Amino acid sequence: MKIIIAEDEIAVAEHLKRIVEKIGFSVIRMVQCGEDVLSAIEFEIPDLVLLDINMSHRTDGINTAEKLNRLGVPFVFITAHSDAETVDRVTRLKPLGYIVKPFISNQIRVSLTTIYGQIKERVRELHIGKEKFRFHSGSILYIKSDNNYCEIITSEKRYVLRVSLKNLIELLDFKDIVRVHRSYAVNKQHVVKVDNKTVQIAEFILPKTLDAI
User: Fold this and answer.
1) Which residues form the Response regulatory domain (predicted)?
2) Residue ranges making up the domain that contains 171
3) Which end of the chain, N or C, is more open, meaning fewer C-beta atoms within 10 Å of its C-beta?
């Protein structure tokens, strides 16, 4: 599992990195602010971000978590507070869990091992021809087919793959990706509105002829 640690206290981040790597996971980047989290993701999408709630920068942990949700990148909050008030404040952001300071190695091991099992169900690596693609289930908005090519529209980018829509849906094997038209499949997580003839995904209005949703 590839992990980014976002923690503005360097000594704390280094301590957490040692724990994570001892468990057997890879820390691909350590950053100190939310802006750097988003920049790092543009370079390489992690499986998980360990995100300090109280980073002392303009883009703090909560603002960063909101953006990670839009990108479909899962995260765990790092916090010095495990009280009900703190948990209630951030529950709406749907973190996969919490790591409480001071760190207890065995608790982190159990948490990250459990989360790894969940994440494996949400990430796919596809090898199409000579190219390799990596997708998180939550980041895909919809897929558009044009003969033997498909365009995957995510919350940030568009990807063109030489594969049929039927085969692509099978390769992704995400339960929320469903076909709604001969040329379109959508992610049910992002459905805003649906009627007999159309489905709205974010700001996109797509044709609907199949009753998958």
Assistant:
1) 2-116
2) 126-207
3) C
